Amino acid sequence: MDITAELQKTYNSEINVEISWLWDGGIDVRLGDRLNGFVAETNVPLVADILPWLEEAIAHFYPDSTYAKELPMEVRDRARRQIFLAPRVGAQVRCPHCGSPNPNLGRMEEIIAFVCSHCGAGVEVITPKVQ
Question: Among 4-8, 101-105, 116-120, whose mean pLDDT is lowest?
């Protein structure tokens, strides 16, 4: 399989995908995008594992897409039975200056400070005390 050609077909089908990695942390693959949300994600150890997961995820979540319809029937059948992990969600806070949500790109569980991506204000997050 040629990953370049398959990613181009995915792009042409207007299906959003995110692939990222931090050395020695595996490869994060997400179906969807930061603006509209992700529908599934995984972490794979090898670049060769990206495409098989994407094919099944696309066939599962976008079965009527041009991309999914061109996949072999066995991939589409396997995708129907596949259980996908829901995307992880980290802590979320809003900017007290403009009200925009902090996108929490690192998906940290606790946010202590951030710079608002909308208004540029620095924000210190005060964690409420639990009693």
Answer: 101-105
The reported pLDDT for the residue numbered 36 is: 76
Q: What percentage of the chain reaches a pLDDT higher than 90? A: 53
Closest listed residue to residue 88, CA positions, set 38, 24, 14, 16:
38
Burial 79-114 (b: 16+ CB within 10 A, else e): beeeebeeeeeeeeeebeeeeeebebeeeeeebeeb
DSSP 75: H
Q: What sign results for the dihedral spanned by CA atoms 98, 101, 107, 108?
A: positive
> How far apart (Å, rounded) are the C-alpha atoms in residues 101 and 103?
6
HSE (CB half, 13 Å, CA atoms) of 69?
4
Task: Give CA separation, 26 vs 70, 77, 100, 126, in Å.
Answer: 29, 27, 31, 33
Handedness of CA 46, 48, 54, 59 (dihedral sign): negative
pTM as predicted: 0.70
